[in-house]
Amino acid sequence: MKLRTYIVEDNATIRENLIGTLEELAEVQAVGIAETEDEGKEWLTAHASQWDLAIVDLFLRQGSGLGVLAACRDRASEQKMVVLSNYATPDVRMRCAQLGVDAVFDKSNEIDALVDYCIVHGTQRAAAAGAPVNRSACS
Q: Which ranges carry the Response regulatory domain (predicted)?
């Protein structure tokens, strides 16, 4: 049972590398991408039952990831929102927490932590759904 993940990231190189890494290491299925705040808000809210995890960059080609996060505050409790940013300062982390973000990861040095987060969340989701858990993905 793959973790259905939506990615809001305007840098194509980062986005494609992230999708490849997460699909290979964390049993993630990318269900869509957005490069702007408006695209991210529109898709995530219009397809509320079609995603389990959203990974959001804060600085986008248009708008801000903060707007995407605010638009998804009332998501289902099992849906997770995480931020992946080059600007994961204490102030940014606090603002994200105020918007109900589940985790913040720094692009420069916390990609492994993001992969681990996806593995854990995917395992928890599969267990809650009664699906067999692939423990080999956790080793």
A: 4-122
